[in-house]
Amino acid sequence: MRPNFFVNTPDILHAYLQHGGRPAFEVRAVLAATLSPTWGVYSGYELCENVPLREGSEEYLDSEKYQLRPRDWEAAEREGRSIAPLITRLNEVRRNSPALRQLRDLHFHHADKDAVIAYSKRSGSNTVLVVVNLDPHHTQEATVSLDMPRLGLDWHETVPVRDELTGVIYHWGRANYVRLT
């Protein structure tokens, strides 16, 4: 049996999404897309819909639990209110990375800040390393210490790593400084 990570539900709007703004939606998308073999979003998530029914409530103002809501996807895209391009990119990365389509061989690496999570997944020769800032309000700096043998490397080796969201290539070894917004 495989888990299916949904970034949200049609009826529960967690405080993290209510108050975290667009970065909170992006964080959840990256985590769901890279931690689980299958993932999903409910309609409206792409537009970062985060208005509660009332202050302190975990219910959406206009929940689709009992109604269909029309949305202007093109206007949202033009106005920069959509994370659909990120979701598209995450799905492209998943399509090209067998490690992200399986649950086995998930390994968490040490980050010296609680607001930063680092993990890797391997499948054959495909290794994916993910580092995420969990704090949607602040830039975080941390040192990520990699368990090199879990990555198929010796402790002294360095390896080029490519940020799949920006295209930037870094050279990483056992300990690596990150600054994440």
How would the blueprint of this fold be written?
Elements: E1 4-6, H1 15-35, E2 38-40, H2 73-78, H3 84-96, E3 106-111, E4 116-123, E5 126-133, E6 140-145, E7 159-162, E8 169-172, E9 175-180
Parallel strand pairs: 1-2
Antiparallel strand pairs: 3-4, 3-6, 4-5, 6-9, 7-8
Helix proportion range:
10-25%
| Strands in their spatial order, largest beta sheet | 5-4-3-6-9
Strand content: 25-35%
Count of individual beta strands? 9
Main pleated sheet: 5 strands, antiparallel
Uncertain segments are none
Overall 3D shape = elongated
Order of helices and strands: EHEHHEEEEEEE
Number of helices: 3
From the helix content, strand content and strand pairing, which structural class follows? alpha+beta
Distance between the termini: 35 Å
Alpha carbon gyration radius:
18 Å
Number of domains: 2
Please, could you describe this protein's structure?
The chain is built from three helices and nine strands. It has 181 residues and is of the alpha+beta class. The strands form three sheets. Strands 5-4-3-6-9 form a five-stranded antiparallel sheet, with helices on one face. Strands 1-2 form a two-stranded parallel ribbon. A two-stranded antiparallel ribbon has the order 7-8. A hairpin with a 6-residue loop joins β7 and β8. The longest helix has 21 residues, at 15-35.
